[in-house]
Amino acid sequence: MVQALINLDDSTNTVINVVKAKYGLKDKGQAIQFIVNKFVEDEKEPELRPEFVQKIRAMESQKSIPVADFGKRYNMK
Q: Which of 8, 27, 43, 53 could connect to 12 by a Cys-Cys bridge, CB 3.0–4.6 Å?
């Protein structure tokens, strides 16, 4: 495990304390790990997620419907 001495502004410190309290974490280090893990999870590219790939492949295998005039077909004119 790596130890780090960091400087935080008051608002960042408050956010870390809120996360720590909300999720019942033991210390600020766990809160920072939690925040970083959430960020990594949220920033994953959708095309790399297996569920997304399966969804797109299922859509690709569906039969398409040819539409000559999209606006007319969907009453947009």
A: 8
Determine the Cα angle at 27 with ends 20 and 42, to 5°.
50
Q: How far apart are CA 56 and CA 26, in angstroms?
A: 41
C-beta of residue 57 within 8 angstroms of C-beta of residue 47: no
Task: Tell which residue, 35, 5, 7, has the closest CA to residue 23.
Answer: 35
The answer to whether 47 and 53 are in contact (CB under 8 A) is yes
The domain limits of the chain are 10-73
